[in-house]
Amino acid sequence: MADIDDDYYLDNDEQTVVIIMTSGPSTPGRCATPFYLGAVMASMDVHVHIFFTMEGVRLMEQGVADDLRAMEDGKLIKDFIQDAKRAGVRLHVCQPALPGYRIDASSDLIDDVDEVNRASELADLILRSDKTITF
Asked: What pLDDT, in 10s, does the model give residues 60-106?
């Protein structure tokens, strides 16, 4: 068996992944995996940020994820969100997308949201990340 070079393994503690979430309640089958994948990576000591933009901001609106499931009889999306938060995933909401969905950042978002950001902050996250994934 060949030896694997120690440099092959990365120190996950220094890895940053940004997940850009544009999917929302109109496509529930796409709404669980970003949280699940984010929780898995965060549990591996990766710094994970999920940035919600376009229809994705609706998932951070109070009440929207409460009864939403990716598949019939599957786990609730709100439970995937809570799992991701417990694992250490940071949740960002795109401020410019909110008015189009009549969402008020000061009163309509769930408590799990860490930050409401402008597009320039998303650009900065992407440029500083090791990997960027979109849903």
From this structure: 999 999 999 999 999 999 999 999 999 999 999 999 999 999 999 99
Maximum separation of any 2 CA atoms in the chain, in Å: 60
- Alpha-carbon span 39 to 41, nearest angstrom: 5
CA 87 to chain centre: 12
Find the Cα–Cα–Cα–Cα dihedral 74, 114, 58, 117, rounded to 10°.
Answer: -150
Domain boundaries, the chain: 14-134
Question: In terms of Cα–Cα distance, which of 39, 38, 80, 36 is closest to 60?
Answer: 80
Q: DSSP labels for 75-92?
A: -BHHHHHHHHHHHT-EEE
Class of the CATH domain delimited by 14-134: alpha beta
Both structure tokens of 29: 């089958």
Cβ atoms of 129 and 17 closer than 8 Å: yes
Task: Dump pLDDT digits (tens) for 37-57.
Answer: 999 999 999 999 999 999 999
